[in-house]
Amino acid sequence: MQALRAARGGAWDIRQAFADDAQRFARFSQQAPHVFADLSKNAWDAEVEQQLLALAQERELPAWRSALFRGDHVNSTEHRAAMHWLLRMPADGGALSTSLKGNAVLQQDLQQVHETLEAMLQLAQQIRADAQITDVVNIGIGGSHLGPEVAVHALEDWVTAGKRYHFVSNVDGHELGHVLAKVRAENTLFIIASKSFTTAETMLNAHSARQWFLDQQSGLSQEAQKQALGRHFVALTTNTQAATAFGIHTTLPFWDWVGGRYSLWSAIGLPVAIAVGPECFRQMLAGAHAMDAHFVQAPLERNLPVRLALLDVWYRNFLGYGSRCMAAYSHGLRRLPAYLQQLEMESNGKAVDREGQPVQVATSAVVWGEPGTNGQHAFFQMLHQGQDVVPVEFIALRDGGKYLGAHHRSLVVNAVAQAQALLVGRDDGSPAQYCPGNRPSTFLLLEQLDPASFGALIALYEHRVFCSGVIWGINSFDQWGVELGKLLARDLEQRISAKHWDGVDASTVALVSKLLLD
Ligand code: F6P
């Protein structure tokens, strides 16, 4: 592959590749469930793709995919399966019913999944019907926040009017404070979303919300306060004991085999189910399941998550590109970059392989972006004329939904024109205006941003991350790096109380002193 890179990498000309191959668009575009992908404006050709497919085979991608869908412990450091796909499987297994055959454990897990799903949708329906509840406040962080938030924004055309949705994640009290200033206790439902029910930020926000709530009920007896708390607080967690100890009566459980950043499909999706209703939530699951079936069943060379992962590996390891820009031309998808940052960078930002040995190649790229057309008036200058090549991923919708057709046309025209500009560049003699062109982009197209398409899109990204992780030989389902910061924050809290600074670097001591002690 390195030889191929050396032969092609330096002087790669995507424009020439179009000129040489009349079939290029057909060869490098494909339909997957709910998502059409144009991969033809990327810096590769059939030979590169063949070699990348061979690399995927050599890294045993098909065997790892089977292990994932068998419920094997692919999350080896935490000794767990990663079965987010089971959360969107129909009760009879749907398009993947054969995966269930002879696997009693999976069958049992699927039954539990559906029992909890039905309980969650019933609760969602009850809250939807409760006109007294006008505000739903989700308190959670990371996977217990970003999935529901991106989904509620993406599906805003499907959100039933009458309730407002707030997402509180940051431990910065301004976030919770601003929300509490807008709501009334008797009209608010607090959802405490935390897989572990121990995450420091979420727990502090939850305790502050509870205190605020109780302060509003100060005229009531203790028993009446307790009951009110039970009515207005719901927990979504695998740690039901801790939720009960917090005083929450209504808890929707999920399981340790659901990774936080893969948990949108579980009880963590409750705010989405309340916002869009049970039927739309089921459609979101169905769209994701269709993508699961595509990932399991399509041959690797027509398998969209696989092909996108191959491009990621090609760019990261062979052409040396360090980041990917997400440019979703959709206001609904404005939080997608944040969601993908956790999904991709927490999953694949790793330096050791599954055996604990150093990985010899670069892993996750930096994923970043803003919705179009806003990004055009900010960082696109650098994408066109800067010295770093940054592959761009466009997302556009054919049907823009219910508002203002002329706006949608302009939005889509801009998306296509930007992809074209990155490809063709500009050279009319003026050095200042020179755009080298030949800059790679991928274009994903959804019919519309409906629940099924959204579900399929997110599942596409989940599987893509898994595929690149397999090729890099890493465990995409743990996140030990996050732990160090948590550990040191706890340590600093204790040191501040004890005024004990032995062994701490001078900069840290000085900063703590300036910020908290002086
Ligand atoms: O950021 C680390 C992390 O563990 C994420 O993986 C997870 O989504 C987030 O914290 C929140 O965790 P919890 O749902 O347990 O509160």
Describe the model.
By secondary structure, the protein is an alpha/beta fold. The chain has 3 domains: 2-15 and 24-72 and 298-472, Glucose-6-phosphate isomerase like protein, domain 1 (Rossmann fold); 84-276, Glucose-6-phosphate isomerase like protein, domain 1 (Rossmann fold, 3-Layer(aba) Sandwich), CATH 3.40.50; 480-517. Helix content is 50%, strand content 11%. The strands form 2 sheets. Strands 1-2-11-10-8-9 form a 6-stranded mixed sheet, with helices on both faces. The chain has a 5-stranded parallel sheet with strand order 4-3-5-6-7, with helices on both faces. β10, α18 (405-424) and β11 form a beta-alpha-beta unit. It is globular. The mean pLDDT is 95. The site of 6-O-phosphono-beta-D-fructofuranose has 14 residues, from loops.
What attributes does this structure have?
518 residues; Rossmann fold; six-stranded mixed β-sheet; 11 strands; binds 6-O-phosphono-beta-D-fructofuranose
Give a nutshell description of this structure.
This protein is of the alpha/beta class and 518 residues long. The protein has helices at 2-8, 14-20, 24-27, 46-58, 61-70, 97-100, 104-129, 146-154, 173-182, 200-216, 222-232, 240-246, 270-276, 278-297, 304-318, 336-348, 380-385, 405-424, 451-472, 480-498, 506-517, and strands at 29-32, 35-38, 135-139, 164-168, 188-193, 233-237, 250-253, 323-328, 366-369, 392-397, 441-446. The strands form two sheets. It has a six-stranded mixed beta sheet, sandwiched between helices.
